[in-house]
Amino acid sequence: MNLKLKRPIIFFDLETTGLQIAKDRIVEISILKIFPNGNKESKTWLVNPTIPIPPETTAIHGISNDKIANEPTFKEIANDIIELIHNCDLAGYNSNKFDIPLLIEEFLRAEVDFDMKGRKSIDVQNIFHQLEKRTLIAAYKFYCGKNLEDAHSAEADTTATYEVLLAQLEKYDQLNNDVEFLSEFSEIRGKCVDAAGFIRYNNNGKEVLSFGKYKNITLEQIWKDNPGYFSWINQSDFPLYTKNIMKDFVNKMKLNEKFKN
After folding, report:
1. Alpha helices (runs of H) in the chain, residue ranges in sequence order
2. 51, 88, 93, 107: which has the fewest Cβ within 10 Å?
3. Which of 129, 79, 126 is nearest to 106 (CA)?
4. Do 93 and 136 sit in the same domain of this protein?
5. Cα–Cα dist 169/182, whole Å
6. pLDDT digits (tens, 9 = 90+) for 108-139
7. What is the number of domains present in the chain?
């Protein structure tokens, strides 16, 4: 089976220094590009994160500080990655919640303009969890009948994720071989405004927060009740992409107020 594509789609996986989107960095990125005609292109980079890799993290993915000491930083390869994923949709395993937000964060740190506008994202883990509730290793065994060798290697995980999606399409009649359908099916957290899911759309299409004391309250209402809350978010440990969306919202509200007066 081949994916039915209108444009290329990127399957990718990250190995990182940890799990905090706003603080941790990429140490390995593997990309598998699938073209509409079925052709494939792949590339894997080791990355110097410019911060230490904790020993407990090295124990998981096997990438040590010595191993990446002479590798390029993300900023040095950012333009190569942008060129490879230009005009592509994105797919991964747990990618909506982690890989995509962290990738965007790295681009912003490198001062490279990137967002998800106009792109679809497929999260194979979300499809799996809605239908079977397992991990990538179990998913690979369940759907593909194979043992996942070199788990937590970005390249092995990327290839396994692609194969699992193809097997899911074969197995479930309710899945359409269509990127837009699979993207919507992957959105078990609801439609997110920012990549990390701190801001979402409610049922009325309004932007709301997904956390804290203002959970499920619209940004417009928060602005009316406590505009200082936006300053707190800007000064706190949120991803840059989330902060940029908040800044754009504040600027829009200030502009609206200016023209009302």
Report:
1. 55-61, 65-68, 74-85, 100-109, 124-131, 136-144, 154-171, 179-185, 219-225, 228-235, 240-260
2. 51
3. 79
4. yes
5. 10
6. 999 998 988 899 999 999 999 888 767 899 99
7. 2
